[in-house]
Structures are given as C-alpha cells and as structure tokens.
C-alpha cells in the first residue's frame, strides 16, 4: 500500500504528503513498531537507501524517524514510529540496512531507546559509565508532536489514529499519553 510508485507490505497508521521546501520530506508514513522491519525490507527492495534514524523526545513518547532516499527518484520518505516512553523499544533494522547499526546505537546512547535484535547495542559515542538517555527532556520541556511536526496533506489515515486530529481526546488521569 502507498502510491507514488512506492509500495509497502503493511498498512500504515497514516500517510502525509510532505513538502520538500518546508521539511525536506515528500512523504511521512506513520507505522507501528511491529511493522518497521517489513517496511524497511520493502524500501531496500525498491532500492532506497537509509539516510539516518533519529529520536525526538515529545510529550506522547519518542518519535523514531527513519529517513530514506533514492539515487534516481526525487524525494525523501520518512517512516515514523511513536513509542511509549516507559517501554521505548522497537525492532532493529540493522540486519536489513547495515548502516542502521550506528544510528540505532546513537538513539540508544542519547535517548535510551532500545532496538531489539541489535547485534551490538553498546554505547557508541558516550563513555560506557554514562547513563543512557542524556538528551531526555524534563516533562515541562516536552512539546506535543503536533506542535513540532507537520505531517503534510493527509492522504491516508487508519481508523483510530488521532495523533494529528484537531481535537485531541483528554488523557485519562494517571495515564501517560
């Protein structure tokens, strides 16, 4: 499923048509953590290369972004996965893209995000004695994702995906959103 001559073997939570001029990304594809390996494999089969993986500490948890580009097709594709802060874990794609090894270790170093199945999830840049997550924000400094990321024109949205809706449901008392 996708369009613009790009296909994925999974159903995204949402697809937003981005703007190269404002974000450098032509398509934002929101996925579940369970779908990231299949989606990465599909990108490799379509000759996309992985540019980077990054983590952003937002009010809703961690947004993990995978940026892909192609040598002959214009535009960058971003796969985005939102994970809960308390259980910041998702599958490694280092067996699909070797370069992911570095980026996943960097996310682990700076944000404490774990990548299951990673062959060498050890500190990359920081001293091994430094606790993971040195770039974590305090609660007051975290912004809602919708304030820092514009997904672009929404061209597909799965049922129940409300992250960028105008009206957000009130969080339950005692439950982190």
From TrEMBL:
Alphabetized Pfam families for the sequence:
Complex1_30kDa
Q: Per its UniProt entry, which superkingdom is the organism in?
A: Bacteria
Please name the InterPro entries in this protein's record.
Answer: NADH_quin_OxRdtase_su_C/D-like (IPR037232), NADH_UbQ_OxRdtase_30kDa_su (IPR001268)
Q: Name one GO molecular function term.
A: NADH dehydrogenase (ubiquinone) activity
Name the UniProt key words of this record, in alphabetical order: Ubiquinone
Q: Which residues form the NADH:ubiquinone oxidoreductase 30kDa subunit domain?
A: 33-139
Task: Give the family this protein belongs to, as stated in its UniProt record.
Answer: Belongs to the complex I 30 kDa subunit family.
The protein's name is NADH dehydrogenase (Ubiquinone) 30 kDa subunit
Give the source species. Answer: Maridesulfovibrio salexigens (strain ATCC 14822 / DSM 2638 / NCIMB 8403 / VKM B-1763) (Desulfovibrio salexigens)
